[in-house]
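Backbone geometry:
***
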Amino acid sequence: MPKPQILLLPSDNYWGWVHAVRDYAVQFNVSVTPRLENALSFHYPTQVITVVNVPGIFPGIEDLRSWLLQQAPGVTVDVINVSTPGQLHHLLSQRIRDNMPLAIRDAPLFPSGAAISLKWPTDFPAVVQGFGENPELYRRWGLPGHEGIDIRAPINANIYACAEGYVYRIHNGTGGHPYGIHVRVRHDGGFRTVYAHLNQVNVRTGQYVQPGDVIGLAGSTGNSDGGHLHLVLKHEGASRQQTGYPGDIVNPTPYFVSPHLQSVTWNAGFDWPYQTALVGVCARPGSPLEGQDWAVIRTARIQAIKLTHISQAEDVATAREIYPNMFFLAQLVPDFPFPSRSADYTEWLAESIEAFYQAGVRYYEIHREPNLRLQGFGQAWSSGYEFGRWFLDVLNRLRGSFPDGRFGWPGLMPGASVSGMRQDCQAFLESAQEAVGQADWIGCQCYWGDESGLFAESGGLSYEMYRDRWPDKLLLITEFSNPSPHVGAQLKGAQYLQYYRHLRETAGVGGAFSHVLSSPRRYHHEVWRTEDGGPTGIVAAIASRPF
């Protein structure tokens, strides 16, 4: 079986480079990306990474091949030294003629000459989710990753045919089909396209369509929580030739030739750019930040800090002296007994926000862990629905006082119900869905106790239940940690580094805040520095990261 191959291309003039490798990628079923993290995680550790090593492709990395091998031990790295897309196209054309993939000696996956040209199917040149991304979400369906591409398209926006062909199937969305209302078109060469999550179909079965014909209007039917187009490309026989995807699914990206692609931005579909999830840490609870805390922040190259109501507004200026682009999230929760009436709570909160707001802080988490009895469950509210009404009243009051503020749904304590202490996180969330959807962003908490929990749905990936319900909402991991007293700080640091790296490849996650920087009481197995000022093994691990 041939190894999966991915071409690592320059981000400058990316689509010019894509057109240069198009025929080669089609011939040998190769994926392409401009992102280092995509190449590193692509079918690791069995992949072949072919680097188009243009001078200065990744500033700060002098020997790209050695860097990749250091980050992903055991992978095969193949380097092509060229300066222009034309040079690369000439080199790959020879490979196609010789039927010889780069760094691979197996037979090609597609017969020579099989190709199709795809026109961009929407008026919005932005990809929400690329092919093969987020394998942690799609493994549950036996897929190596996202089986198509999600393209930005607001509700009722035009959806265009990508290529000429015949409409061979129209599904009206009944029966719980995950694609909802969708259209399937058959093209020459054994290719088929699927246009999913539509709101309306404008063609009929058997109709001949040309590239650019309106075949429907965008929607959010099926497994979707926001307007977009999910486009799938299939090529007959692909599954038999071991592409890695069932149902003859192949990557559509190399086939696009539309001028629209020249301006495509590969953001996650959120205000927050893809691949920029920030490395964050929670500030010292119960007392202001101390001098040794700032030393840790500097050494570990922290990019984001979660402040508390104990923190000082002056901390914002101090942090920006260390890192001018420091991001701040303020979690402001009064000590118990707190004012449970939304009007009283808002009055207290507004007073606390004012100083931070004047200092430039714009992101605020309203309350924390409301499914815990210690935070009001069973006293101020008895369900997620009741808390949701309380939350919306607070939210509306704050938006009037702080129009530039970004107010988030608070992180829930994950886990099942514990009598007298916690309501089941999912049950609480489901009954509060209306309120969650009106927040500016969503906070999540993720914890694990051993290596197996790092990427488990009940551990480090527990944010997925939020992403599944609200795919268009920005997520912030407002707290995460391995609190186990049986795992050393050095190993925890290695796990945290993996976690930060993983989140950079997860669309719509703005950053993650490790719990906790330091603490005068409790949390001794989670702190980044001890009370005598010494850094734990977590700090060195995070400081060593290449991003």
Observations:
- Confidence is low (pLDDT under 50) at residues 104-114, 258-270.
